[in-house]
Amino acid sequence: MTNPNSSHQETSRRNFIKGIAAAPVVALATGGNLLAQAPSGQSTATAPNNKGAKSKFVAIQIGGRSFVDEGVDQCLDTLQETGGVNVVMATVFTYGTGLAGRQVRSEPLPDHGVQEYDRVHGGSYTKVHPEFYENSVVKDIRAPELGDFDILADVIPKAKAKGMQTYALFEEAYNPRLMPNFEKVCEVDVYGKLGRDTCFNNPYARAFLASMVSDWMTNNELDGMMWESERQGPLNNTLGAHFGNINTRTSSINCFCNHCISKAKEVGIDGRRAREGYIALDHWVTKTVSQPARSADGSFVTMWRLLLEYPEILAWERFWYTSQEEMYGIIYGTAKSINPKAKIGWHIMHLVAMSPFYSADTNYARLVHVSDYLKPSIYNNCGGPRFAQYIRNVQSTIFRDLTPEEVLEMHYRILGLQGEATLDKLPTSGLSGESVGVETRRAITDVDGAIPIYTGIDIDIPTGLNEKRTQPSDVKAATLAALKAGADGVVLSRKYAEMKLTNIAGAKEALQEFGAM
């Protein structure tokens, strides 16, 4: 359908994007807060179908394959009855298997749905209206594997009839091979290699994301939206401050494209020096990881010398994050200009609950002005093996002077965690439910009541064969900890298609015990 006010909305959207694009120049030049330049638009969002003061926002992330396999009505009934779900976060766009498709092939099938594996092509799981992509170089994005099924048009009316809200969920999970012209919107790493993600400062990339958001918000009666930007800046990636296998060195050092170099120059950052610094740091990491013994000065001292020699390294890291925050502002402004009542928020990557570096970069308070809510992903079950890998990564680079066990203890102290597992037991035990409460309280304190915090609860996110597996008691404990910490709600994650119903039921049990149902 065509919005009769589309011309006015497009003008408003262009004006907003023009304004937000200039914000970092002013903010970085004056030392001010980038997000203070963006419209606030905050609201104290309440849980849908509020049954009383204690009612909570209870969302679940779900892909189109589940609706096709189980039937929309049956699926919605299962979500309500089993988990007390009142918000459907429907995956509208992804090329990944984390939010789309059935269970991943390495994992056992859950206790519902079609009992066989599938293949994910990916793209848009809702209708693509070409008129919204006239200014986008990326256009042909309709996912083919579910036929004409439309996860918004086919779900929203039925969800509404059952008293449930629908939020559009989309993520940065692209497949350049399946997206014509992706090379025109992608990042470029420090060595000149094209990346698999979009560049936040690339005008074509901005136009592409704004086109999708405009399309979805104009043509569907959405109650809200959530974007997953699951990546971090070049410094953390270079140092291996993540939970991937550092030995594979799959994390790219981005972005150094012409758009970034030009924009950085405008705010006084020398892109050439930044590139030199990151290449030197990358070489230092390679050498440090491979050497069998401590160097004469130790790893931390030699790394710090590099940062002193190239202050542009830290400047470029901050520049990357302000660019990501700008993208949040563009998405927020685009959506709000079309539907001011829709609640727009962000999935905060799981690293926020384990990496002090990522926590420092991802400042909850800075996001308040372009958010109606935040979902910090405090995944304690898969958090065990992931945290253990993260610790081994940073111990092999930044903290080579310490033992892995000492690095873990240091992180526990920094993160305010007590009584958690030792490094050898962490992969099989996971983190405690109380760890979810600790990070939830921090998020609530940082936003200072301006917006709701909906804690991400992990249910059956894949782990290794001999690593922690989710149990109903885990889900109950994590959900209760989030609610007791003051969370306004929870988001059951990653996707319904990989969750056991018995584990989903653990969330409902917690809600009932807390008195939120």
Descriptive account of the structure:
- By secondary structure, the protein is of the alpha/beta class.
- It has a single domain, classed as TIM Barrel.
- 43% of the residues lie in helices and 11% in strands.
- The chain is built from 18 helices and eleven strands.
- Strands 1, 2, 3, 4, 7, 8, 9, 10 and 11 form a nine-stranded mixed beta sheet that branches. A two-stranded antiparallel ribbon has the order 5-6.
- Strand 10, helix 17 and strand 11 form a beta-alpha-beta unit.
- The two termini are 37 Å apart.
Summarize the structure.
The chain has 517 residues and is an alpha/beta fold.
CATH topology: TIM Barrel
Based on Cα principal axes, name the global outline: globular
- Biggest sheet architecture: 9 strands, mixed
| Structural domains: how many | 1
| Secondary structure: helix percent | 40-55%
Give the H and E element order: HEHHEEHEEEHEHHHHHEHHEHHHHEHEH
The radius of gyration is: 22 Å
Residue-averaged pLDDT, rounded? 90
Strand content: 5-15%
- The CATH superfamily is identified as Glycosidases
Structural class: alpha/beta
CATH top level is Alpha Beta
Low-confidence stretches: 1-53
